[in-house]
Amino acid sequence: MRGSVLVLATRNRGKLRELRVLLSPWTLQLRSLDEAGFDGLLEEPGPGYTESALAKAMAVCAATGLPALADDSGIEVDALHGWPGPMSARWMGDGATDEDRLHGLLAEVARRTPDDRSARYVCVAALAKPDAEPVTAHGECFGTLVEPKGGNGFGYDPAFLSADLGITFGEAPDEAKARVSHRARAIARLGQSGVFEPPSMG
């Protein structure tokens, strides 16, 4: 059986690559937005992760008529009361790159809370299917912000020293990060609920 079709509702190439790895245990036909014929905007209305993840998944599902998976995620600095959180990809404005945001975050932490660099990654994954209620799952992982090391991953990964791995996500091989990351845990929880199983024939 080839499995069910699932559209990955993201234009972030790093996230798309990671989702393909995380979804490999299930027999799914994964399609990008382009492959599914979706050329609309992916709105992230917030204010939290859940609202934005649901908005993206439901918009793609409605436009394509296919099940769609989206997530919204961010990094939260404990001493800064969870900032930047859901604004992690946007707090420096639309023109900022991943590198700009990474070094900007480190500069803010060094200025505002140099003695406490503990942080967490948070993810909410949302699955929307035609004629069904959407489903969400939450995942998080813990670590410390350090000077960037490694070129793997994306976003803030090179500066996130994983408490589980003892190295940054930028240094971690894909298979190691896929065991412990916030996104891995959210996807695993969705999978445990049975939402990725093909429809029964009968």
Q: Topology of this structure?
A:
Blueprint: E1 4-8, H1 13-22, E2 28-31, H2 33-36, H3 49-64, E3 68-77, E4 83-84, H4 98-112, E5 118-128, E6 135-145, E7 160-162, H5 174-180, H6 182-192
Parallel strand pairs: 1-2, 1-3
Antiparallel strand pairs: 3-4, 3-5, 5-6, 6-7
Helix pairs in contact: 5-6
Summing up helix and strand content along with how strands pair, one would put the structural category as: alpha/beta
The rounded Rg comes to 17 Å
Which H/E pattern describes the elements?
EHEHHEEHEEEHH
Average pLDDT score: 94
N- and C-termini, Cα separation: 15 Å
Instruction: Please bin the fraction of helical residues.
Output: 25-40%
Q: Write down the CATH class.
A: Alpha Beta
CATH topology: Maf protein
Low-confidence parts lasting 5 or more residues at pLDDT below 50? none
The total of helices stands at 6
Biggest sheet details: 7 strands, mixed
Shape: globular
User: Any guess at the CATH architecture?
Assistant: Alpha-Beta Complex
Offer a quick outline of the entry.
The chain has 202 residues and is of the alpha/beta class. 31% of the residues lie in helices and 23% in strands. The longest helix has 16 residues, at 49-64.
